[in-house]
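A.,

Following up on our hallway conversation. Structure tokens first:
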């Protein structure tokens, strides 16, 4: 019991910037300001810098590139009046439903705190990925609410 009290606290949960180089200061900035707390609090294991940079890159790519691209593609299709059986009301209903499912999946993934060594980690990654894709679809449907116009070629 006495030997355990002399052990250093877990290094994975000690995120205060101490004795860091220029790249360490950048890493500390990312840890504190750009990444949410759930992203860093997986389990009591040490998180390597390469894993941290990889996961941060994937999250930023998903949120800053994939979501706007999907939203723009759906908004462009709505601008051209496609699909033809949709209306503004359908785009709004799709936005509400898909946005709710996306929010539920992303919230579940955020609150999961899965360890990378368990079966829950791939489930967390899948929930985050699907939730991110659905967030792009919901954003595109919201753009479709405002950009929708009927095609000039009606087929009755």
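Then the amino acids I'd put at each of the 156 positions:
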């Amino acid at each position: 019991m006495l030997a355990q009290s002399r052990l250093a606290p877990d290094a994975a949960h000690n995120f205060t910037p101490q004795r860091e180089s220029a790249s360490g200061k950048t890493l500390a900035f990312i840890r504190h300001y750009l990444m949410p707390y759930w992203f860093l609090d997986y389990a009591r294991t040490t998180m390597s810098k390469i894993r941290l940079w990889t996961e941060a890159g994937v999250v930023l790519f998903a949120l800053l590139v994939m979501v706007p691209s999907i939203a723009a593609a759906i908004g462009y299709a709505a601008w051209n009046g496609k699909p033809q059986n949709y209306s503004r009301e359908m785009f709004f209903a799709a936005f509400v439903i898909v946005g709710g499912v996306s929010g539920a999946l992303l919230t579940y993934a955020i609150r999961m705190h899965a360890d990378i060594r368990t079966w829950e980690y791939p489930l967390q990654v899948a929930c985050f990925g699907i939730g991110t894709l659905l967030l792009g679809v919901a954003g595109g449907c919201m753009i479709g609410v405002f950009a929708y116009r009927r095609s000039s070629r009606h087929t009755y």
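The first helix runs from residue 2 to 5. Curious whether your intuition agrees with the design.

B.
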